[in-house]
Amino acid sequence: MVETRHCEQQTAMSWPCAGEGGRTGDWRSMKPVLDPAKCIAAKKDSIVCMLCWVFCPDNVITRTAPPEIDLEYCKGCGICMEVCPSQAITMVPENEGQPALNVEETGCDV
Ligand code: SF4
Ligand code: SF4
User: Fold this and answer.
1) How far apart are CA 40 and CA 49, in angstroms?
2) Which residue, judged by its Cα, is nearest atom 2 of ligand 1?
3) Is 18 part of any domain?
4) Using one digit for the tens of pLDDT, what is the confidence trace for 29-57?
5) What is the pTM of this model?
6) Pocket test for ligand 1, best of 29, 50, 62, 79 (most atoms within 8 A of CB)
7) Is position 17 within any domain?
8) Distances (CA, A) of 31 to 17, 18, 21, 90, 95
9) Domain limits at 74?
10) Residue 103 counted as domain residue
């Protein structure tokens, strides 16, 4: 009998957790931003579409209306943006809207 975690499913599933390199969100350079005004699930207030949830390789998108993205573990691959049929998800630079650090602030001596 195959060991299962939370249900009777016997399919391969991944679950977000910290790896040797820490949380994947720590080293992401681009992050997804979801616009509920364009999201089909949000507009219908129903669990429909959900392509972002289906295709996220890190299982960090909730199956809710609207979907929520766990940025602690999102690695910024952009697949959710690619599969979204209504362009509700855009990828933006991780530090967008934040002031740029100068060399001293980064602690980098290279
Ligand atoms: S960018 Fe990649 S890891 Fe992050 S939510 Fe989208 S599909 Fe998942
Ligand atoms: S794929 Fe796009 S439209 Fe569909 S649920 Fe996800 S964000 Fe909403």
Assistant:
1) 7
2) 77
3) no
4) 999 999 999 999 999 999 999 999 999 99
5) 0.80
6) 79
7) no
8) 18, 18, 18, 8, 9
9) 24-94
10) no
